[in-house]
Amino acid sequence: MSDGAITKTDSRILSALQTEGRLTNQDLAERVGMATSPCWRRVRHLEETGVIQGYRAVLDRRQLGLGVLAFVRIRIDSHSEAEARTFEEGVKRLDNVVACYSIAGDADFLLQIVADDLDSYADFAMNVIRRLPRIKEMQTTFVLKEIKPFTALPVKAPA
């Protein structure tokens, strides 16, 4: 992987870790058909090169009392780099915004937001999001049912 390409072994390791990030090195090595030392070295290399960026627990938002999931499309009224950066920095400080993307099309940003309920979402939207700098337009789409929430990236092995 010195040239940055993901190997077949790497793809097996990455798939296994995305499914179960708490695997011991021994269990991971057995699952991908490797000895423990080379497996540990591959994982360490994937971490050091930034392919693996961390390990997290996947939480059920409803169990945490976060019953509302919404996507908010935002247009800002200035497209200067400084204004966009100011907006981005403001969004990064908001715990209820669990993801934010700069997008192409008829909006500038797409935010994924969680809230306890509709009233708390309304309060957050009107008193926090609307107060961010340079917002021209804001459109909310509420999730009625999560069909396929994000769980893992597709890891393709080389041909």
Task: Provide a brief overview of the structure.
This protein is α+β, with helices and mostly antiparallel strands and 159 residues long. It is 35% helix and 19% strand.
Can you walk me through this structure?
The protein starts with 7 loop residues before the first helix and ends in a 17-residue tail after the last strand. It has 159 residues and is α+β, with helices and mostly antiparallel strands. Helix 1 packs across helix 2 and helix 2 crosses helix 3. Strand 2 and strand 3 form a beta hairpin. It folds into 2 domains: 41 residues, Orthogonal Bundle (Arc Repressor Mutant, subunit A); 81 residues, Lrp/AsnC effector binding domain/regulation of amino acid metabolism (RAM) domain (Alpha-Beta Plaits, 2-Layer Sandwich), CATH 3.30.70.920. It contains 5 helices and 4 strands, in the order H-H-H-E-H-E-E-H-E. The radius of gyration is 20 Å and the shape is elongated. A 4-stranded antiparallel beta sheet has the order 2-3-1-4.
Keywords:
159 residues; alpha+beta; Arc Repressor Mutant, subunit A; Alpha-Beta Plaits; 2 domains; four-stranded antiparallel β-sheet; 5 helices; 19% strand; WH-like_DNA-bd_sf; transcription; DNA-binding; AsnC-type_HTH_dom; WH_DNA-bd_sf
Question: What order do the helices and strands come in, and which of them pair?
Answer:
Blueprint: H1 8-19, H2 25-32, H3 36-48, E1 68-76, H4 81-92, E2 97-102, E3 109-115, H5 118-127, E4 135-142
Antiparallel strand pairs: 1-3, 1-4, 2-3
Helix pairs in contact: 1-2, 2-3
